[in-house]
Amino acid sequence: MKRILLPFVILFSVIFLCASCLDDGNETEFIFADDTAISAFSLGTLNRHTTVKSSTGEDSAVVVTVTGSKYKFYIDQVKREIYNADSLPVGTDNKHVICEITSKNSGVIVIKDIDSDTLRYYNSSDSIDFSEPREISVFDMAGTGKRTYKVSVNVHKEYADTVYWNLMCTEPSLARLTAMKAVENNGRIFVFGTDGTATHIYHTDAADGHSWRQATPNFNMVIAAADYSNVAVKGGMIYMLCGSQLLKSADADNWEKVSDVAGVARLVGAGSRRLYALDGNGGIVSSDDGVAWTAETLDGDARMLPDRDINFAVLPLRTNAQTERVIMTGNHADMLDATDTTAVVWSKVEEYAPNSENHSWTYYDNVVKKVLPRLENLVMTCYDGRLAAFGGDEMDGGKVKAFAQMYFSPDNGLSWHNDSRFSFPKDFAGSKSSFAFVAGSDNFLWIICGETGQVWRGRLSQLGWANDRTSFTKSPRL
User: Fold this and answer.
1) Whole-angstrom Cα distance, residue 231 to residue 238?
2) How deeply is 186 buried, as exposed, middle or buried, from its count of CB atoms within 10 A (0-12, 13-18, 19+)?
3) How would you class 67 by CB atoms within 10 Å of its CB: exposed for 0-12, middle for 13-18, buried for 19 or more?
4) Which letter does DSSP use for residue 29 in this model?
5) What phi-psi label fits residue 209: left (phi over 0), alpha (psi between -120 and 50 degrees) or beta?
6) Which positions make up the signal peptide (predicted)?
7) Starting from the edge strand earliest in sequence, which strands make up the sheet with 454-460, in order?
8) Which residues pair with 380 in a beta bridge?
9) How many whole angstroms separate alpha carbon 282 and alpha carbon 269?
């Protein structure tokens, strides 16, 4: 690594002079390839600095090894870039890297210094500092050209299985809401909340979260206090049931009337094709357009339908195209069994292909042991292909403390489990009675708190990593 480029030039001069001095009778013709490129790049074994738990529960710093050859490097011959799309683990030492670089047609590889224009020969046994992108060039053997690449050895800055929460803001207008519901639509987070007198609507860009604006609906009517929960999103439109009128809007400012709805008591949610509601007779109804409503069939006791803390989620079925499962959770104001400590969960499979069967709603009659507790002000959303829920104190006894944990269901609401990765933010200060929970774009979870006005946004770090890389390895002719 101590040699500079000058000997490389002298080498070609010597070869030329030796070739010209050969006896004409024994003349040998030397032909050098006039094109080259870096054709392969791989890492050797690297050190990683991390911490582990000792037998006494204390953190200890250790050094472990990482097999660098397991991390594929992509070579983009057009952009002249070399990089690993799958970053190395947090703590990997990329200042002392042994790498294997291969060139086409035995091209000569040199590396530019970080702090100068000096070029040094590549040696596979020397360690290289890749703490920042390096410039690596390869010269063809004919001495007529070179190709220069930017080489990046990427290392994760976050642990893959950790949720990182950020306090986006503390918003006074949200703090005065005594109950609320949040939805995501068209790249915005909307909060519908009541102050006990009327419903107010606030929103922020999903990429922002720091600044909130109050919506100014274009109709002269006060939205009743209870209407904050009569909200659903379908096809890029927000639907809201105000009394007997069904309205829709893309931005919560400009609303248009869909229909006068008779017999619909509560709008609960929407799948990709249908709106769902509870009717005045203790059943479920659905509508494609919000005008004509059809009674749904129930495979279970209709008295077990929720009448408070109602949540709705949609999970596409991976095994069937044009098919999804819709799930509804909630609580009863007065349980049929006063000792019951579980929330209620209903589910239905919706098929949208031609001639598909219309399925019934099924009540999960506590068929598994890992049930969803009957939590005050239960909230639920869909995150990373699973259902996620939490709530305040458990009803009728308070055996589960407020915000004790989040509950996750990997099986469409059949069973609910703790996930230690998803703890609440360290400085989280929520109201036991007023909070909202929603999954937004870019795999972010949002928690909006009444009383405090805190707005938290968090994400499982690995869901924020880019994975849209393409391999470019063919070496075009110079």
Assistant:
1) 7
2) middle
3) exposed
4) -
5) left
6) 1-19
7) 163-170, 454-460, 445-449, 435-439
8) 389
9) 16
Tell me the pairing of strands 361-363 and 264-270.
Answer: unpaired
Are β-strands 81-83 and 146-152 bridged in parallel, bridged antiparallel, or unpaired?
parallel
How far is the C-alpha of 89 from the C-alpha of 65, rounded, in Å?
11
Q: How far apart are CA 362 and CA 370, in angstroms?
A: 18
Closest by CA to 286, choosing from 229, 348, 377, is 348
| Tokens (6 digits) for 237 | 């439109």
At 99, which helix (H) or strand (E)?
strand 99-103
Contact criterion met (CB below 8 Å) for 65 and 45: yes
Give the pair of three-digit tokens for residue 413: 């609401």
Is pTM beyond 0.85? Reply is no
Q: In this structure, are residues 177 and 183 in contact, taking their beta carbons and an 8 Å threshold?
A: no
How are strands ordered across the β-sheet holding 294-295?
264-270, 275-279, 284-287, 294-295
- Which one, of 309, 392, 298, lies nearest residue 346 by Cα? 298
- Give the residue among 287, 387, 289, 404 at the shortest CA–CA distance from 346: 387
Residue range 462-473, pLDDT digits in tens: 787 765 444 444
For the segment 215-252, what is each residue's pLDDT rounded down to a tens digit? 999 877 678 888 999 999 999 999 999 988 999 999 99
Q: Please choose, from the candidates 70, 43, 73, 37, the residue with its C-alpha nearest in 3D space to the C-alpha of residue 471.
A: 73
